[in-house]
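Subject: Sanity check before I submit

Could someone independently write out the structure tokens for this chain? I want to compare against mine line by line before I put it in a report. The sequence has 250 residues.
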Amino acid sequence: MHKIYFSSSENMSDVKGNSVQLMVTSPPYWDLKDYEVDNQIGYKEDYETYLSRLYKVWIETFRVLDDSGFAVININTKSFKKELVSIPFDFIKQMREIGFKFIDMHYWHKSSGIPRTNNLKDNFEYFLVFSKNTKTKINNIDFFDYKIENPSPNTNIWNINKKFGSVGKKYLVHPAIFPVEYISRLIQIFTMEENIVLDPFLGSGTSLIASMNSNRDFIGFELNKEGYLPMIKDRLVENNLDIEEVLLVD
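---
Independent answer below. Compare away.
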């Protein structure tokens, strides 16, 4: 079962409580990109409004997650008026207030990082890992990407490059997305086959592709149907997947 709801994930009432094993997402950055749809989160909003709207999404995530479930959020800091805004750490504070346990911080090392004007080159992003309780277990899989002596298994740094620039210019320009492989690894670690994976900010469909390839059920939310559905369809075709297997809900 795969579903995409073309509505805001601030209200996920159509998703049954305690039914999802893994929420994995990359939420919109604050005041960085226009996703060309009304009611989008983050664009031309003050920082407190941005955080308060995402707080609603995290509350809904807590409700729909199984007691053994995990939530993984990909986010990075942002330079604003020559200061670094600590968005990841504000997310951690929010999630703890809701009741999540902050169990790990994963680092995505990108050799193709983008230089910044007033800061050092951006070569990594955070993946924040939360659970609903501390007794949950993960699948012991080692994805080690570095050639050093005596590496520890299950490292918290993965070196996976992403495409430089934007994709989807036929429909809607989208900043270079994170690789399917990265999300596939997270799915393998935090879920079993036929578990449900949730992405509250589906975008171009990376988490859907990774879930379908991994034999996991999937639920996604995306506000911009006109902009992203054609891109999602194209990417499914490129990955030999069938859009007919996905229920589209307005």
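---
OP: Matches mine. For the report I'm noting this point. The radius of gyration is 17 Å.
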